[in-house]
Amino acid sequence: MSEHTPTGAQPQEPTGSEPVRLDQGHVQGSGGIPERFANPGLPPHVLRNADLDEKAAKRAERQVAILFLLSILGTVLFLVAYFMVDVQTQVWVPFTNEMSLSNLLLGLGLAFSLLGIGLGAVHWAKTLMPDTEIVEMRHPLRSSDADRQGFVDTMLDGGESSQLTRRPLLKATFGAAMGLFALPLLIQLGGSLGPLPRNDLSVTFWNGEKGKDGKYHPKKLRLHRDPEDTPIKPSDVTIGSVYHIQPEGLLELSDDLLNEMSKASVLLMRLDPTDFQETDKGRKAREWGYQGIVAYSKVCTHVGCPVGLYEQTTHHLLCPCHQSTFDVTNDCEVVFGPAGHPLPQLKIAVDSEGYLIAEQPFQEPVGPSFWERG
Ligand code: FES
């Protein structure tokens, strides 16, 4: 045995089934683990006051009832506050200054209502409800063969006695009625998912008006400063400047103005033409612009916030919502953040009077990468 064993103590080699004392020096194990651990069983059940004394039980009953009563009063207070207290009435409350009396009473009423039920239920369970541990043995979940056969027989008997099996017309119409019965529920569910995909994000004010043939006939609209609503010339756009642009005529709309504005808004920037990257995308961005001036949709392709920052040195556009960053020198490719697509570019040119115009509408849907893009 260990030499560290205190004198007088004769530790026994643990058998694995008894607890081992650790306050008597080292313990030398037998080198194996027991085959089975003994079931420690449940601790002995201790009777509570309310189990032993009827008076204590009555007292507990009264305490629970008081808590439920508190809940009832809380609910009444809530209803009174809701229907009878003027929402404009203010009251001074320590530490919070003035607040609406109605809000205060609604909050207190709801708090007491829920708290009373919660505390009452817990107190009831701890003092009066049975607290003995009960074990329910597991049994096979599968029904016996006899029960299963009994179920089948019952169903067949039911089908036979209702004559469903002998009358196919009844069977078909009953099945159809029951199947169709679920349709209104499914339709409501489907209807509440929102509008079906359309081309809302593919068509903007830059597409022009819809003709009688159902097609859009783009006009080469001028780029107008927003909100001044004045046309802009290339000479106005110096290197490093950014203009907020709307299509000519949009601000005169009377219907759906905000929606159309948000879809059509464009950022106009001028770069040194040598700043564009010598990649396919960079070359395309330069070609769709005019002397280094480029126009891109202002609607972020992540979830549609307005792109709000332009960093002149790096030529990056940044969306403040989730920090998506677009590289203007490479066709507004996403260089950082959650956006899934580059910002769509508006191809621009100059009209006979020297004003910037859109050569064509956006060639892809603007805005978020939702299913409507498809
Ligand atoms: S909306 Fe622009 S990054 Fe999320």
Give a verbal description of the structure.
By secondary structure, the protein is α+β, with helices and mostly antiparallel strands. The protein folds into 3 domains: 1-33, no CATH class; 49-127; 205-373, Rieske [2Fe-2S] iron-sulphur domain (Rieske Iron-sulfur Protein), CATH 2.102.10. Helices cover 32% and strands 14% of the residues. It contains 8 helices and 15 strands. The chain has helices at residues 49-52, 54-84, 101-127, 145-161, 168-181, 183-191, 257-264, 280-287, and strands spanning 90-93, 97-100, 209-210, 216-217, 223-225, 242-247, 266-270, 293-297, 309-311, 316-318, 325-327, 333-336, 345-346, 348-350, 356-358. A 5-stranded antiparallel beta sheet has the order 5-6-7-8-13. Strands 9-10-11-12 form a 4-stranded antiparallel beta sheet, with no helix packed on it. A two-stranded antiparallel sheet has the order 1-2. Helix 2 (54-84) runs antiparallel to helix 3. The longest helix has 31 residues, at 54-84. The chain is elongated and about 100 Å long. It starts with 48 loop residues before the first helix and ends in a 16-residue tail after the last strand. Mean pLDDT is 87; it is low at 1-11. The chain binds FE2/S2 (inorganic) cluster (FES). The site of FE2/S2 (inorganic) cluster has 12 residues, from loops.
